[in-house]
């Protein structure tokens, strides 16, 4: 594929709007269609962003011959249904995080994509961020020695009333899938899948987690991660990696950082950024979700069916950890049955 990458956007909520706004200024890509469960919503979204075609059902978008790849921006509870529909219609897919409600659903999507030879990627934009990529290079080159601890948190306050989607088990509500996926993915980017999972949580009357603390362990590496997520507490949203030879600290917003600081004994603190001018300080002239969008476009042009930055096996491993955490804290969704 050497022409413009033509995107379809499935869903019309806030995350879909942010994605579409960022994609509008990414060279070599364009949104050509949008779909919602209602034609009214799809048409309003299309008019807002100047999108040529609007569909009142998902299947019509999946059948559009002028769409190369679909961005699935529905709530978690519909990720498997929406992404599978598009894959079965022969479309490449970028699916929002958390990838699905559980590992079983994620395995179904990955199996379908691999059977069809289609591109599939979880929209973990953190992994595509150049500052995070620079950090992983330094860690793998031994800048902090052997990693011993990872600490990360992502908490916000609502209030989120009983009718909010974050309180609804049927929609995958709770802090874990919306926010906890970031600290877990951050830790597993560095250490892989843990072999020990402990967790404690405050649950809502509806049975979703309002606040969850996780302790993950890696026996062979001798490492652990202390992670928190919350929809009732405004946490610092920072992250730290401590090794045998140093430490890396991320300021608030670790999941989409502009910089980090490397601390090593006998050295002054070293600040790292992506370098170069950019609309958001991260360099390269890209902003927001454009790093993941650019990675999808690159992979499609290269004929790749998955991204080396956000590998499918890594997304499956994160979903298994999230399942293990839910098992420890007693959170079940109807889709688990």
Broad shape: globular
Count of DSSP H/I helices: 10
In total, the number of strands is 14
In order across it, which strands form the biggest sheet?
8-9-10-7-11-12-13-14
| Mean pLDDT over all positions | 94
Distance between the termini: 41 Å
The helix content is 25-40%
Q: Structural class, from secondary structure content?
A: alpha/beta
The unreliable regions are 276-285
Strand content: 15-25%
What is the alpha-carbon Rg in Å?
Answer: 20 Å
> What summary fits the major beta sheet?
8 strands, mixed
Q: Which series of helices and strands comes N to C? A: EHEHEHEHEHEHHEHEEEEEEEHH
Question: What is the element layout, followed by pairings?
Answer:
Layout: E1 5-10, H1 14-23, E2 29-35, H2 39-49, E3 53-55, H3 58-62, E4 69-72, H4 79-88, E5 92-95, H5 103-116, E6 120-122, H6 125-128, H7 130-140, E7 147-155, H8 175-191, E8 196-203, E9 209-218, E10 223-230, E11 239-243, E12 247-250, E13 260-263, E14 270-272, H9 290-302, H10 312-329
Parallel strand pairs: 1-2, 1-4, 2-3, 4-5, 5-6, 7-10
Antiparallel strand pairs: 7-11, 8-9, 9-10, 11-12, 12-13, 13-14
Quick tags:
six-stranded parallel β-sheet; 14 strands; alpha/beta; eight-stranded mixed β-sheet
């Amino acid at each position: 594929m050497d022409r413009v990458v033509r995107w379809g956007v499935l869903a019309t909520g806030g995350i879909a709007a942010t994605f579409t706004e960022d994609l509008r200024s990414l060279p070599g890509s364009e949104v050509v269609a949008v779909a919602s469960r209602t034609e009214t919503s799809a048409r309003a979204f299309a008019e807002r962003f100047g999108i040529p075609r609007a569909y009142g059902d998902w299947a019509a978008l999946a059948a559009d011959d002028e769409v190369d790849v679909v961005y699935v921006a529905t709530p978690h509870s519909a990720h498997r249904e929406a992404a599978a529909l598009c894959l079965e219609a022969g479309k490449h897919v970028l699916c929002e995080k958390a990838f699905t409600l559980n590992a079983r659903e994620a395995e179904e999507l990955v199996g379908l994509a691999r059977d069809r030879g289609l591109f599939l990627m979880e929209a973990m934009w953190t992994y595509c961020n150049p500052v995070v990529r620079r950090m992983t290079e330094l860690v793998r080159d031994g800048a902090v020695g052997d990693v011993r601890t990872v600490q990360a948190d992502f908490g916000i306050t609502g209030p989120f009333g009983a009718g909010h989607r974050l309180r609804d088990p049927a929609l995958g509500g709770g802090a874990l899938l919306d926010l906890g996926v970031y600290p877990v993915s951050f830790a597993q980017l560095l250490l892989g899948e843990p072999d020990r999972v402990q967790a404690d949580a405050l649950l809502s009357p509806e049975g979703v987690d309002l606040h969850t603390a996780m302790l993950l362990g890696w026996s062979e590496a001798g490492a652990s991660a202390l992670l928190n997520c919350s929809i009732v507490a405004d946490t610092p949203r920072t992250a730290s990696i401590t090794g045998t030879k140093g430490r890396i600290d991320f300021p608030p917003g670790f999941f989409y950082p502009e910089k980090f600081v490397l601390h090593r004994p006998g050295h002054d603190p070293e600040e790292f950024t992506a370098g170069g001018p950019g609309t958001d300080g991260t360099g390269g002239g890209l902003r927001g979700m454009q790093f993941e969008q650019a990675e999808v476009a690159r992979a499609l042009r290269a004929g790749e069916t998955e991204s080396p930055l956000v590998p499918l096996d890594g997304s499956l491993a994160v979903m298994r950890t999230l399942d293990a955490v839910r098992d420890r804290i007693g959170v079940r969704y109807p889709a688990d049955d």
